[in-house]
Amino acid sequence: MGQAAARPVPVLAPSAATRQHAPAMIAFLSDIHGNREALSACLDHADRAGATRFVFLGDYVGYGADPAWCLRTVMARMADGAVAILGNHDQAVFARGNRMTGRAAAAIDWTRAQLSPDAAAFLQTLPLEHAEEDRLYVHADASSPEDWRYVLGAEEARRSLEATPARVTICGHVHVPRLFGLTATDKCTAFAPAHDTPVPLQRPRRWLAVMGSVGQPRDGDPAACYGLLNPGTAELRWMRVPYDVEAAAAKIRRAGLPGSLADRLFTGS
């Protein structure tokens, strides 16, 4: 089987006693895009790392060949208390006026035929954002979530941060892990987070974290990406998880979806 990324992935396996006294870890998963193999690998890794809460940041469907399975999995996690918000590809399933073109439009047309009425109806119930404590979860730019604007740099990050009172905003949509910090002197700085390196989200800064993509990374690393937050220490980590890329790509080709959607999984582009 083909594996994305050769780096070893540390898997934390806390004891029962440690789990009893440790603060709840929150796992953030965005842009799954119908990639069953990547989602399975990330959920397994997060479970073993001690995550007790899950937040899904949208785009469960589109591009990949297992949209129904991915949606069922997210729905099952929600039954256990997970949070899920709407992404633009999810919206495109039920909003025919959504601005999808090219490969994305072809994948959504195919996806509609794969989903049960219940699954499609579930997508329509999802909110555009979710707030808790000092954090806001949203798929795209928080200044206008329904417009699906990308947070690509400091200017967009500032616009998003200034539109909400949340101290920490966590989003997806871009498929590239990034972190932006707004200082007390109003300077917005950008960081490219390193794999499995804790980043303290210190006060008085305000922060915007872009989680990267579980199912279709675009930062040159084909390994699936998700985030782990320790609310007790306010430390956030971006985790990279190898998965069976060959299996995911083969399914895309067998489904008759554009071959480039399979090819890009091998390069993370």
Automatic annotation (TrEMBL):
Source superkingdom: Bacteria
The GO terms describing molecular function are: phosphatase activity
Q: Which residues form a coiled coil?
A: none
**Gene Ontology CC, one term:** cytoplasm
Write down the Pfam families for this protein, in alphabetical order: Metallophos_2 (PF12850)
Q: Where is the Calcineurin-like phosphoesterase domain?
A: 26-229
Family under the similarity heading: Belongs to the metallophosphoesterase superfamily. YfcE family.
Q: Write the protein's name.
A: Predicted phosphodiesterase
Q: Which organism is it from?
A: Muricoccus roseus
Classification of source organism: Bacteria, Pseudomonadati, Pseudomonadota, Alphaproteobacteria, Acetobacterales
